[in-house]
Specification:
two-stranded antiparallel ribbon; 9 helices
C-alpha cells in the first residue's frame, strides 16, 4: 500500500516556498498551500485576527504536510491504494488541480460513477486496474487537462513548462 511519508518530501520539493504570482489563480501560496485552503483548514498564524497572505508566508513544512495529508492524501484514500506510483500521481494531481476535479477524471477513466467523491467503489476500481496502464492513462489525461487550461486561458502558458516538468517527474514503479 502507498505511504504518505514516501510522497510528502517530493511534494514539498515540487511546490517550493512562498509565491504570489499575479497570474496564479491560487493567489498567495507556500508549499502549494493556497490561501483559500488555509483559510478553510488552517489558523491565524500571525495572530492579527484574519487569515491572509501574511499567514501563508509563515507556513511551515509541518503545516504543508498536515494539509497534504488531511485534505488531499486522505481524500483519495491513498493509504489504501496498492501502487505507490498511482497513489502519488493521483494525489499530486488533486493537490495541483483540485480534489473533486481530479476524482471525477479518475472515475471517468475507470468507468465508475462520476461524483467527485472517492469511496470504496472508486478505490476498488483503482486497485483492480492494471496499475501501469492506469498510471500511463492518468499521465496522458493530466497532460490533456493542462493543455486545455492553456487553450482556455492562454496567459497560463507561463506555467506550462513547470507543469510538464512536474507531470514528467512521476515515473511508474511496479512495486506496491
Amino acid at each position: 500500500m502507498a505511504r504518505f511519508e514516501n510522497f510528502a518530501d517530493k511534494l514539498l520539493r515540487l511546490e517550493g516556498g512562498y509565491v504570489n504570482h499575479a497570474l496564479d489563480k491560487g493567489g498567495p501560496t507556500k508549499y502549494g498551500v493556497i490561501l483559500s485552503v488555509w483559510q478553510e483548514h488552517g489558523h491565524d498564524k500571525d495572530g492579527d485576527g484574519d487569515i491572509d497572505a501574511e499567514d501563508i508566508k509563515q507556513l511551515s513544512e509541518e503545516d504543508a504536510r498536515y494539509i497534504a495529508k488531511k485534505i488531499f492524501w486522505d481524500y483519495f484514500l491513498a493509504d489504501s491504494i496498492r501502487n505507490e506510483s498511482v497513489a502519488q500521481f493521483i494525489v499530486d494531481w488533486g493537490y495541483h488541480s483540485g480534489r473533486k476535479t481530479v476524482a471525477k477524471i479518475v472515475q471517468r477513466i475507470l468507468n465508475v460513477e462520476v461524483d467527485g467523491t472517492v469511496g470504496i467503489q472508486t478505490l476498488r476500481a483503482i486497485n483492480e486496474a492494471n496499475q501501469e496502464e492506469l498510471f500511463n492513462q492518468l499521465k496522458i489525461e493530466r497532460k490533456v487537462f493542462l493543455n486545455n487550461i492553456i487553450r482556455r486561458t492562454p496567459n497560463q502558458i507561463v506555467f506550462y513548462d513547470g507543469w510538464m516538468n512536474r507531470v514528467n517527474s512521476f515515473q511508474f514503479k511496479n512495486a506496491a
